[in-house]
Amino acid sequence: MGLCYVGFHPIYKEVIGSNRHLMQGMTELKEYFNGRRFEFEVKLDVKGTVFQQSVWKILSTIPYGQTYSYGWIANKLNNPKAVRAVGAANGKNPISFIVPCHRIIGANGTLTGYAGGISAKAWLLEHEREHHH
C-alpha cells in the first residue's frame, strides 16, 4: 500500500481514516514546497501499464533541479522511436511532483505539456533552480 494519486485535479474519493502513507506524503510535499526536500521517500502504489511503469521509474531517477527530454527517456528504454509513447505515459503520471514529470522538456529546451499547465511547470522548475544546492 502507498500513495496512488497526487495531482491538480480532484478525484472525488473520500479518504477514510488516517493513513500513514498519506500523512508522510503530505509532510514530504510540504517540505518540497518549502525548499527543504529534494527526494521523496513515501511508498507509492501506482497503477499503469508495464510501459507506463517503466517510464515513471525512469522519471523517478531524474535529480532535483535537472531537466531531460522525452527522447532521453526513450533512449533509456532502448527504444529511441518511442518518444510519443513516452510523452503519453508522462502525461498519465498519477503521482505529480513525487514522480517528477515536470522535469521533462522538449528536445529543443521548450516547456511542453503539463497537467497543471505550463505556468505551473515553469514555476516548479524555477522553484527547484532556486533551492538546488
TrEMBL record:
It catalyses: a 4-O-methyl-thymidine in DNA + L-cysteinyl-[protein] = a thymidine in DNA + S-methyl-L-cysteinyl-[protein]; a 6-O-methyl-2'-deoxyguanosine in DNA + L-cysteinyl-[protein] = S-methyl-L-cysteinyl-[protein] + a 2'-deoxyguanosine in DNA. Keywords: Cytoplasm, DNA damage, DNA repair, Methyltransferase, Plasmid, Transferase. Its EC number is 2.1.1.63. GO terms for molecular function: methylated-DNA-[protein]-cysteine S-methyltransferase activity. InterPro entries: MethylDNA_cys_MeTrfase_AS, MethylDNA_cys_MeTrfase_DNA-bd, MethylDNA_cys_MeTrfase_DNAb, MGMT_N_sf, WH-like_DNA-bd_sf. GO terms for biological process: DNA repair; methylation. The keyword Nucleotidyltransferase does not apply. Residues 51-129 form the Methylated-DNA-[protein]-cysteine S-methyltransferase DNA binding domain. Coiled coil: none annotated. It is an enzyme of class 2 (transferase). This is Methylated-DNA--[protein]-cysteine S-methyltransferase.
